Amino acid sequence: MSVIEMLGFGAEGWGGVLLLGALMTVVLTIAALALGAVFGGLIAAAKLSRFRVLRIIGDCYTTVFRGVPELLVIYLFYFGGSALVTSIGQLFGADGFVGVPPFAIGAVAVGMISGAYQAEVYRAAVLAVSRGELEAARAIGMPTLTMARRILIPQVFRFALPGIGNVWQLSLKDSALISVTGLAELLRASQVAAGSTHQYFLFFVAGGALYLAMTGVSNRIFGRAEAYVGRSFKRNFARN
């Protein structure tokens, strides 16, 4: 069988399997980034809090999830989650091992890792906002919610966007580690295709090419988003 046939979309080709794996990778990364935004926002708020206990909690979170290897985090979540679900199932009369959905565990694990990095991005973005603008808004009696909506959140989004782009790329690569749970993402699809055909070099190169393609598209999307946000701020500044 030729290389074109193996990478094609025919009955014996693996092109469709690889593309479905790439789609699963993108969906998993989007879910993880969304969960990470929630975790990151909460942790960033904790690290910026005037309460020392909250700052300690925030520091512990970022230290643990940035310091422990990503693969170990995934193993802990997958096997620890399965053990917890199995124990709960046994309390209700279930027999045997009860597994947890690989996608859900992968999204939560990568999301919490992503959240540790997003927390630092958001914290830095908040600190980058001009204190003078916030003090001026308070001086004229602007309500807190209005100040957050009109001044704080737009500027935090602007300053955080480049960092979020970097976190996206990190999460995209971390999603490959979810293959250890059996989820059919891109790396797992490449492994299955390589093992079935014994063409390991071919399919791992094909998988790497798809990762590079996703990275390139992501860079263009984030680049255009940054340019659009920058133009919007310039227009608003010129009006004011």
From TrEMBL:
Q: Which UniProt keywords apply?
A: Cell inner membrane, Cell membrane, Membrane, Transmembrane, Transmembrane helix, Transport
One term of GO molecular function? transmembrane transporter activity
Q: What is this protein called?
A: Octopine/nopaline transport system permease protein
Topological type in the membrane: Multi-pass membrane protein
What InterPro entries does the database record attribute to this sequence?
AA_ABC_transptr_permease_3TM, ABC_transp_permease_HisMQ, MetI-like, MetI-like_sf
Q: Does the keyword Cell membrane apply?
A: yes
Family statement: Belongs to the binding-protein-dependent transport system permease family. HisMQ subfamily.
Question: Where are the bilayer-spanning segments?
Answer: 20-45, 72-92, 200-222
Report which superkingdom the organism of origin falls in.
Bacteria
Q: Which organism is it from?
A: Paraburkholderia bannensis
User: Where is this chain primarily localised?
Assistant: membrane
Q: Name one GO cellular component term.
A: ATP-binding cassette (ABC) transporter complex
What Pfam families has UniProt attached to this entry? BPD_transp_1
